[in-house]
Design brief:
The protein is built from five helices and 76 strands. By secondary structure, the protein is mainly beta. It has four domains: about 200 residues, no CATH class; about 130 residues, no CATH class; about 45 residues, no CATH class; about 350 residues, Lipocalin. The strands form six sheets. It has a 25-stranded mixed beta sheet that branches. The protein has a 25-stranded mixed beta sheet that branches. Helix 2 crosses helix 4. The relative contact order is 0.05.
């Protein structure tokens, strides 16, 4: 019994020793071998789990939870040779230990690599994750954390091999520890790359402590992350030959320095700050290196006892500030003496709190760049910006105030303001623009190089920018660019734009301005440069359409002191074309054409009554009866057949008088033609008449009416209102089988027009009242046929001669008022088509659906021309209005209701369709027979 117990104890001890030291190719407890060198760790365990194998590949199950906090030892230890891989793909897993949560070591002598990827939470009181390639390993070491890592010691510790291979850390989750948040060391030849996408915190030590001997170091923290250290936020020591690149887009905080970088090798150090970095007792950024570049981006900041400090004597430093740099101990930026020169660039939007000291070198430069606008006080040079020898504007638009004895160079961007400079050298690509609007810039000597620009603002009161040189002005070419403020400028105005007490030498190469028609020229004397305006080109040169050319030609003929001439003279080409269109007065020419066209409605109303008279006993279609029947000479009449229509059957024409009235209304749009703009027309009215038989088969009548027409040219801000009164004489009869109809109409028109004339810098309202009249003669011949016992039709063809004229007028309003001798136009129309109808009984009434389709053709010119002239002065010119349609289709469809033997009511749709116009209307008619 005693022997048996001892054997059991000995066996258990041997197995425990095996589990702790490991046997090659074997795993114990919850990490089981899946075949070859593949292992799966799963389940809940409270004792240390270990794997020791060649080329082990270890994965986890979602239920893996190893917790050894009740005892001793790591939660999971992986030891091996060759290529080691550990992959935890589940956020539900965890490793917890009073020692190390996860420990991975590669003991290869020669080629080998270690790759670790975690998803679950890991805690170790001494260390969260520890991974290293031992001295003999020549291979990569990488870690990707997707789960939180925490520790009472160091959060993550990684050590690369002494041979070759890269060390890479990608942190996608929070790391929190009482020691180092991360401690990374790489003594071999290889790059070290760290991507921080989660918060990192080292409560007592550094947030990240990094040591590298050879190879490039690249550290990037993402926006929204925070690296916090009880000492430094990031402490980086580089002793090899590679470049150091740190991009802090997130926040970095240190109880001492926020970022402390020591690069003892010959390569460059490049730091980009996009977040907020702050050191409590140390610098925001501390740099020591042979060649240092640091950029504080817009929105970023560096704050500490020194905002930025470089401590390598003799090194070259290049600092760019687009964000905020603050030194709480009075110095914002401190740079050491440099044999090759330090450079500080302030970009638009910068903020510097504290002194900027560039050291005691002799080649240090303060530069002004960026892409926006900013200001700077020259009086800060010396007290605040110390030990700079060279000053240069390289980008952005800078407004300088104050005084300095220093000479500035301008090689890019714009130097402006009202400051006083010891000297200015404006180079190729540089621009000088005195004032914040119009102002004076003072300087000792000034030099312009070929490719430079002098930007001069002027106003219409004779004021301009000025460069006032107490010394000499040397001009070796360059451009004077004139920017005119809003207002009107007359030719002959002279401005002094440069004066030099020591004399002016040379000339500018070119001069430009933001005018289409004012031509800037320069003149020189011994001490001054002058700017003068003259007319550069005719207005016609900017016109594109016939109407624009007509207006432009009239403007060209005006006196140069005419106010309208001066207003257009100050426009750009686009502004001038807008002025030509606004001034054109198209509405007056368009009124005549629109009134010519709408005469059709009067003809149609009267012609409709005559058609009705030809077929007495049936209803009258709106705009004409649009219903027909066979003649009463024995042929079957419309609607008469087997169906009994009672007292409403078609009857012969009656001799007694017939009184009738028709109301009409329509809305139309006439397209523009690329010259005249489009025109909208709304109209409505009525016409009433009476007719009677004057001889067998012939009737004559008289009608009168009223209509209102509203015209609108929206794109020309013009409109017209027309009240018209109409008188018509008409007659109809039969010649053999043909119906003959005709008449004459005369209309009196009261016309009111208004124009809003608007173009850049000008607005005016013009209006006019004048009379118009329209006369027209019209007639048609129709031939009735019967296609079917219940359908009758007539074909017809007609001619109309229309004369439209308007009286002369003079607009009232202002400078752009027109006068005109009036409008006069004749057009002959032909109309060819057919009318068809059928008749049916409905209760005690007879209903007649009807349809008319016709082709309307205009023989003469469809353009509408009118001669206009400016009322104040100048020749007349012809303006074209919106054209009328050459060919169009007329469609009318309606219903007639014979409500008694002697009364008919009608309603119909009336449409006109053309390629460049359309009109839609409604008509209603009533007639009474006695």
């Amino acid at each position: 019994m005693t022997i048996s117990v001892k054997r059991q104890i000995l066996l258990s001890t041997t197995m425990l020793a095996g589990a702790m030291t490991g046997y090659s190719g074997r795993a114990y407890a919850a990490c089981t071998n899946s075949g070859g060198s593949t292992y799966l760790c799963s389940g809940s365990e409270t004792t240390t789990q270990s794997i020791n194998a060649a080329n082990p590949t270890v994965t986890t199950a979602s239920d893996m939870n190893f917790d050894t906090t009740g005892g001793i030892g790591n939660a999971l230890t992986i030891t091996g040779t060759g290529d080691i891989s550990y992959t935890d793909g589940y956020a539900s897993t965890s490793l917890r230990s009073l020692e190390r949560g996860l420990s991975v070591s590669n003991n290869t002598v020669g080629a080998g690599s270690t790759a670790i990827s975690t998803a679950g939470a890991i805690y170790g009181r001494n260390a969260g994750i520890v991974a290293w390639n031992n001295n003999g390993v020549a291979g990569d070491l990488s870690l990707t954390t997707n789960g939180a890592v925490s520790s009472g010691g160091d959060g993550i510790t990684m050590t690369g091999g002494t041979l070759t291979g890269d060390l890479t850390v990608t942190n996608n989750a929070a790391v929190s520890s009482d020691g180092y948040g991360m401690y990374l060391a790489h003594t071999g030849n290889g790059a070290l790359t760290v991507n921080v996408n989660g918060d990192v915190k080292g409560t007592v030590r550094d947030g990240m402590d990094i040591n590298l001997y050879n190879g490039t170091t690249t550290i990037t923290s993402s926006a929204g992350t925070t690296i916090t250290g009880g000492n430094d936020g990031i402490d980086l020591d580089h002793n090899g030959t590679g470049e150091v690149v740190v991009s802090a887009y997130g926040n970095v905080k240190g109880a001492q320095a926020a970022i402390d970088i020591s690069n003892m090798g010959p390569a460059e150090t490049r730091i980009t700050i996009g977040g907020d970095i702050s050191g409590s007792s140390g610098a925001g950024l501390e740099i020591a290196g042979a060649r240092n570049y640091a950029t504080v981006l817009a929105g970023g900041s560096a704050t500490g006892s020194f905002g930025i400090r470089s401590s390598s004597f003799g090194s070259a430093n290049d600092i760019t500030v687009a964000g905020r740099v603050e030194g709480t101990a009075n110095f914002a930026i401190v740079l050491p003496n440099s044999t090759s020169g330090n450079r500080v660039e302030l970009q638009t939007g910068f903020e510097v709190v504290g002194i900027v000291d560039s050291g005691a070198g002799t080649n240090d430069s303060l530069e002004f760049g960026g892409s926006g606008s900013d200001s700077f006080s020259l009086s800060d040079i010396g007290p605040k910006y110390q030990n700079f020898e060279d000053f240069n504007v390289i980008g952005g638009k800078w407004s300088f105030s104050g005084t300095t004895s220093k000479t500035f160079s301008v090689t890019g961007g714009t130097l402006g303001g009202t400051g006083t400079f010891g000297g200015l050298n404006v180079g190729n690509g540089g621009t000088i623009a005195p004032g914040n609007s119009i102002g004076t810039l003072n300087v000792g000597n000034i030099t312009f190089a070929q490719g430079s620009t002098y930007q001069v603002e002027v106003d219409n009161s004779g004021n301009s920018d000025l460069i006032n040189a107490s010394g000499t002005a040397t001009i070796n070419g360059g451009t004077v660019s004139v920017l005119a403020q809003s207002g009107t400028y007359a030719t002959g105005t002279q401005y002094t734009i440069l004066t030099a007490a020591g004399g002016v030498t040379g000339q500018f190469s070119t001069v430009t301005a933001n005018f289409a028609f004012l031509d800037p020229t320069l003149s020189y004397d011994a001490n001054n440069v002058y700017l003068l305006f003259g007319q550069a080109a005719s207005f016609v040169s900017a016109a594109r359409t016939p109407n624009q050319r007509a207006v432009a030609g009239a403007l060209d003929a005006l006196p140069t002191d005419n106010e309208i001439f001066v207003q257009v003279l100050n426009q750009t080409e686009d502004g001038a074309r807008q002025a030509f269109d606004a001034l054109s007065g198209e509405i007056h020419a368009s009124v005549g054409g629109a009134l010519l066209d709408e005469g059709r409605h009067i003809r149609d109303a009267v012609m409709g009554r005559m058609v009705q008279a030809s077929y007495d006993g049936t209803g009258l279609g709106s705009g004409g009866p649009q219903n027909t029947q066979a003649s009463p000479s024995g042929m079957m009449m419309l609607g008469y057949g087997s169906k009994d229509l009672g007292s409403y059957e078609p009857l012969p024409t009656k001799k007694g008088p017939v009184f009738w009235t028709q109301g009409f209304g329509s809305w139309a749009n006439f397209d523009g033609n690329g010259n005249a703009a489009s025109l909208d027309r709304d109209m409505g009215g009525f016409i009433s008449g009476v007719d009677a038989e004057v001889m067998p088969g012939w009737r004559a009548g008289i009608a009168a009416g009223y209509s209102y027409t509203g015209l609108d040219k929206e794109s020309r801000l013009s409109s017209a209102d027309v009240d018209a009164y109409h008188l018509v004489l008409y007659g109809s009869g039969k010649v053999n089988r043909f119906d003959v109809r005709g008449g004459g109409a005369y209309s009196w028109q009261d016309i009111e027009t208004s124009r809003n004339i608007v173009f850049p810098g000008f607005s005016e309202f013009e209006q006019a009242s004048y009379d118009g009249d329209r006369g027209q003669l019209f007639g048609e011949i129709a031939y009735p046929v019967v296609l079917h016992p219940s359908i009758a039709m007539e074909g017809f063809s007609g001619l109309a001669y229309v004369h439209q004229e308007t009286d002369g007028f003079t607009e009232s309003g202002g400078l752009a008022a027109f006068n005109s001798s009036g409008y006069n136009e004749d057009v002959t129309y032909s109309t060819t088509g057919f009318r068809a109808a059928t008749t049916m009984a409905f209760g005690n009434a007879v209903i007649t659906p009807n349809l008319s389709v016709a082709w309307l053709h205009a023989f003469d010119s469809v353009d509408t021309d009118l001669a206009l002239a400016f009322a104040a002065a100048g020749p007349s010119f012809d303006i074209q209005g919106t054209p009328i349609a050459r060919d169009s289709a007329l469609v009318q469809a309606g219903l007639d209701f014979a409500v008694s033997p002697n009364a008919t009511l009608s309603v119909a749709y009336d449409g006109q369709f053309a390629s460049d116009a359309d009109e839609h209307g409604i008509k209603g008619r009533a007639s009474w027979k006695f």
